[in-house]
Amino acid sequence: MSNIGKGAEKSGPVLSLDAIDRSFGPVQVLFGVSLDMRPGEVHALIGENGAGKSTTMKIMSGYLSPTSGTVSLAGTPHRFRNSQQAEAEGVVLIHQEFNLAEQLTVEENIFLGHELRKGMFLDKARMRSETVSLLERLHCRVDPRARVRDISTPDKQMVEIAKALLRNARVLIMDEPTAVLTSRESEVLFEQIERLKADGVAILFTSHKLDEVKRISDRLTIMRDGRVVHSGPTSEMSEDQMAEGMVGRELSDLFPERATSIGDDVALSVKDLTVPGYAKGVSFDLRKSEILGIAGLIGSGRTEAMEGLVGLRTHSGAVEIDGKSVRISSPRDAQRLGLVYLTEDRKGRGLVLNMGLKENLTLQSLPRFAKPFLNDAEEVEALDKAISDFDIRAPQKRMNAGNLSGGNQQKLLIAKIMLADPRIVIIDEPTRGIDIGTKQQIYDFIHDLAAKGVSIIVISSEMTEVIGLSDRVLVMRQGRIAGEVSGADKSEDAIVRLAMGLEHKIEEASP
Amino acid sequence: QDTTVIGVSIPAATHGWAGGMNYHAQEAVDRLEEVYPELDFVLATAGDPAEQVSDIEDMVATRNISALVVLPFESEPLTGPVKSVADSGVWVTVVDRGLSEEGIEDLYVAGDNSGFGQVSGEYMAANLEEGAKIVGLRGIPTTIDNMRVEGFEAAIEGSGIEVLEMEHGNWNRDDSFTVMQDFLSKYPEIDAVWASDDDMAVGVLAAIDAAGRDDIQFVLGGAGMKEMIQRTMEGDEMIPANVTYPPAMIATAIEMTAVGMTSSAPVSGTFTIGSVLITPDNAEDYYFPDSPF
Amino acid sequence: MSASDTATPAPARRGLDLHALGPLIALLVLVVVGALMNSNFLSYANITNVLARSAFIGIIAVGMTFVITAGGLDLSVGSMAAFIAGLMILVMNWLLPSMGQGVPIILVGMVAALIAGLGAGFLNGFLITNMRIEAFIVTLGTMGIYRSLVTWLADGGTLSLDFGLRQTYRPVYYDGLLGISWPIIVFAIVAIIGEVIMRKTTFGRYCAALGSNDQVARYSSIDVNRVRIMTYILLGLLVGVATIMYVPRLGSASASTGVLWELEAIAAVIIGGTMLKGGFGRVWGTVVGVLILSLIGNILNLTDFVSPYLNGAIQGIIIILAVILQRGKTAEG
Amino acid sequence: MSASDTATPAPARRGLDLHALGPLIALLVLVVVGALMNSNFLSYANITNVLARSAFIGIIAVGMTFVITAGGLDLSVGSMAAFIAGLMILVMNWLLPSMGQGVPIILVGMVAALIAGLGAGFLNGFLITNMRIEAFIVTLGTMGIYRSLVTWLADGGTLSLDFGLRQTYRPVYYDGLLGISWPIIVFAIVAIIGEVIMRKTTFGRYCAALGSNDQVARYSSIDVNRVRIMTYILLGLLVGVATIMYVPRLGSASASTGVLWELEAIAAVIIGGTMLKGGFGRVWGTVVGVLILSLIGNILNLTDFVSPYLNGAIQGIIIILAVILQRGKTAEG
Ligand SMILES: Nc1ncnc2c1ncn2[C@@H]1O[C@H](COP(=O)(O)OP(=O)(O)OP(=O)(O)O)[C@@H](O)[C@H]1O
Ligand SMILES: Nc1ncnc2c1ncn2[C@@H]1O[C@H](COP(=O)(O)OP(=O)(O)OP(=O)(O)O)[C@@H](O)[C@H]1O
Ligand SMILES: [Mg+2]
Ligand SMILES: [Mg+2]
């Protein structure tokens, strides 16, 4: 929809890659990648998980050096020694995985390395006021004094964005900035992008949400298996064409038809679930083979309610599984009852990044592999199966989970949870950072599970996902269930109205 | 002729007296190596009894020692290992702390810990009036310290001297300084202090000095540190006396062993180095300005 | 174990923060206990004694707060203090014939101590950052090295400052200003400057940042190695300062000087609320921690317990209790 | 600092891994140095001595490997060993009149040691996990407590095993099987079992996981507190085992038993390549680390150095060099 900025036509590229190769040890992941970024232009980089997008971006911003090829800044070849140098040249990267010091406050993180000073001392007052106004500009209501480890994932993303905005970038590179944001927050980000664009900043971003790509980018580069397969104006491509270009095949309908019918037995019954400070009086029934969606705005307490349910947080309320009343005070109890939870925070809570793929995969169901000693062969077998079931693109089987691409980490996390053979599974943001081709595979997988009699709860901030995937959608607002939509009512509009409290199905909740 | 190796195993220099003893051992070794070219010495210092046993094992296994001079870190743990060394035909000289089984060593150069306490106690009894109040500082909790304190207590029994309190100063200047400061806060009247060791006396004196208290008549240290002897010699009223426990006994033991190894002179038996009271009259005889202690 | 205390962090707290006040409360309890047990406890003399003797560990612990906040550790400070004290005494004794007695020679001694501290701190920092060896190993190694160097310098015995010089130097420990003795004043100044550096300067903030996540710090244009080395140098310098206050007290140094100071300093830092893993530190907490440790010893000396052998046990129990008291104030640690 | 090595951790290495072999190389260098310095170095007697005396620290260090891998620390092991040794001696002496001399009383003593170790380990673990106090503080506290309890039990002196009993018990240290003395055999068994547990059981895997990221462990349905307590209990038990091998060697316990064993054990673990922050541990490395430390002491005794005062310095330098040698093999620390 956007037309290419006027400034862009006049000047040449501010930053460009030419024939970049990059290898990690014996594995080559980039092959002759070339890319140009122009001032005032929004450039989207898309591709499957593991295609090499993040690696490309890291090379552009000095976090990685290319094995061969040249990076040019304003037309002249330039080798960034490190990211600091790139930043000094006005090239800023927002990482796919956060780069924040968890013990420090929001404000301290935003100014880290660029503190304002008054003489010898920090000018705390000015930093505070600048932080406040910056966060306001982003419509982010996080407390500048909160420690980053205490704030939610979307807030962390906003802090990252605030940090980048403060750096006065000439070139702003964003690796999946919207993966953890809801559409509302994404809008805020797009507003900022428009502003920066008007100021002549060159912007590169990736996203697996192709509608966004279509909407805000001027130019588009598609990568596949470490190579650039297409580059051109966005306006020339439809979303379907993009998907095809990425995956290399035609994609059928994203959401499969519901094949099996929902059972009659109630698999899980929750009454008055309360997680102090986050959720109050949450009640619902989940039937066998049912896929239940939970929607809501960020901060509506979906995650916390479910974490409470599986014993990760203090909670009260009555829970029945298969009609029997149960007490769950730890995730172990839950898992014994066949109930498992997949976290939305894959880096902090999902995977041990410095352990191998195999070790991560089997961590949750390890006793199964101990007879009494861990059977390496069986673990490897499980990994092979997971790799093929979930299409995990791992260049090597013996690598650390942290070296997988973001989307592939997510797939590994799903595989890990599924290895526990749950009868009831709660999936929080299942497809965060997953490419469109694999998304489809995961949706198929979830349907297959349901067909096998597994009951599923899906928490998702992606509207199309909750609607397309689930049989019924609960909407949460301020820690309470604001209502339920199912069948034909499952419209985006209905959900948003409930989520925002525009429609009262249940008495007004108090936070 | 082949060289004869003499092993010397002593505790490490973790406090003043042990430091002096280390010095004398090193000095004796250097001197005797000059005098007797046919002798070779191995000197090992240990931080705890187990390490000392290891040192002795190493000397036997790799250095083929013909004689061992040992100042046991503690008696009990060293008894067995030293016994097996003696049983293998190695000459054994034990210094200061006796082993807990008799008859193992060929030569015993003994210090007299309960005698040390006793001489100190007798001095107190003789120089304080009935009803006098004293405080005491003890060393690192060990058998040695217990023997000294027992000897001291036995000697003052019946003298009417009241021991207000004894606390561990660990043969350490800083610890005794702290303990003494707190004693001074706690007891408004103290007539004398049994510091039981000159390192501790240094700390005690500094604390008294800083507090500006003049009720304390004197401080009795021990072991004959040169600065203290000098002050006694010069008639310092705060340090009117000292009690010997010479760290140089190790040198005596090494020398006697060397003589035993190189000649047929009879050096076996027990050689007790008693504790002697030093007063301004005889202080000069115990003043060694070159010693580090 | 209920689910409650294993949960993810609660929202950031605001206003009056009981958790932060934990060590202060523990300190107050100790003061009350001390006052009840012995009437001299609150006397001017006793308070001065306790504060002055806390000064050495205190000054070192302030430096240790920075090292630990930045994710490091230093086990060598006790031996380093002994070594610097020995060196300082040797230097002064050696210069005495040429310089004569007086203030200048003391100043030269002080400068020597500071330079030695700086050098020792730099060595630790260099090995840790540039050679990339675990801080635990480096400082365990240098701990042995300094301890054995001082033993060697003292020939196994004690290094004593010349008697005359001692008289000149003595006031630095025993005298003071307006009835407050110098060690207390210096400790207070060091603590205040430390607190200001920690909270008000980029250096303090960088320490916390790299203790929290040194990758992030590096990506934020912070010269991580330089900051890390600086923490060790600062600590070394402060060990020098502590030594300058220590030597006039007894005028001597030996192999037993400063034994276990490292553990005491680290314990003070942690009791004060700094995290051993790094990422968060507060200097005032450390000061409170040092005072808690000193008071425990003082109270034990002022009261008669069953057996002096058990002092260590009581000390251990009180340390643990003090920390429980501190942690207990909030649901989550 | 080039950009490339600031990237996310490198992939796990394969095949011949020089980094992993670091400690082994350091060990080999030491053996060669020793052999060149003294022809008796490789004698049966010397090797037996060195291995047997490594056994105590070695057995403890194996347990410490688990604690550190799981992100913990234990400073109390040395005092704990002294305390358990004292307790064991008291129990045996006390039972002597009723049970008489013989094997049964020794067995009772051993069981007592194991139970005491288990209890002491549990106490540490409980305070650390359930009361959520920093491991450093808890174990610094219990270190003081055990040390002072043993001083008190021994009335400031030494606790000695009855002489007759000592004769019965003595073979446990000095005899052996097929010319290999018992401590060596027990150490080897403990090390092998430890290595198997670390690599081949869920427990070992859980230790590494929670040392790396305990949130992930918790979200993976691992009972984090239980695993953590278990590491301390295991360590306590192994301290008990080490004590069982120690008592027949010296037949006594006192306040100076086991002093600084904690630092030696931790140093061995780290020299062996386990990370102090947790998340990765290897038992065989620890065994190599223990041997390196023992050999340094042994080699220093084999030769005459300038001054025994400098032993500590040489030891410190060698420890640092050993780690540099080990780290130097790879570009990244
Ligand atoms: N440090 C590393 N060591 C080894 N392999 C790596 C490393 N970093 C990335 N890789 C590999 O490089 C490939 C490209 O990864 P990259 O992160 O660039 O993918 P991506 O396109 O960003 O994918 P996603 O959409 O999932 O984020 C992947 O196969 C990944 O496993
Ligand atoms: N420690 C904290 N301190 C302050 N606010 C917090 C803290 N943790 C979470 N919050 C806030 O509480 C709300 C709950 O966040 P959370 O993201 O878990 O909710 P959610 O409904 O699961 O949303 P989503 O899953 O979409 O992120 C958010 O507004 C978040 O900012
Ligand atoms: Mg990516
Ligand atoms: Mg959520």
From TrEMBL, chain A:
Which CDD domains does this UniProt record tie to the protein? ABC_Carb_Monos_I, ABC_Carb_Monos_II
Pfam families per record: ABC_tran (PF00005)
Q: Where in the cell is it found?
A: Cell membrane
Top-level taxon of origin: Bacteria
- Residue span, ABC transporter domain: 15-250, 261-503
Q: Which SMART domains match?
A: AAA
Q: What's the name of the protein?
A: Sugar ABC transporter ATP-binding protein
Instruction: Give any Gene Ontology cellular component.
Output: plasma membrane
Which GO terms label this protein's molecular function in UniProt?
Answer: ATP binding; ATP hydrolysis activity
Q: Which UniProt keywords apply?
A: ATP-binding, Cell membrane, Membrane, Nucleotide-binding, Repeat, Sugar transport, Translocase, Transport
Give the membrane topology: Peripheral membrane protein
TrEMBL record, chains C, D:
Provide the primary localization.
membrane
Q: Could you give a GO molecular-function term held by this entry?
A: transmembrane transporter activity
The answer to whether keyword ATP-binding applies is no
List the transmembrane segments.
20-38, 50-68, 75-96, 102-123, 174-197, 229-247, 283-300, 306-325
Q: Name one GO cellular component term.
A: plasma membrane
Q: How does it sit in the membrane?
A: Multi-pass membrane protein
Record carries keyword DNA damage: no
For this UniProt record, the keywords arranged alphabetically read as follows: Cell membrane, Membrane, Transmembrane, Transmembrane helix
Q: What is this protein called?
A: ABC transporter permease
Q: Lineage of the source organism?
A: Bacteria, Pseudomonadati, Pseudomonadota, Alphaproteobacteria, Rhodobacterales
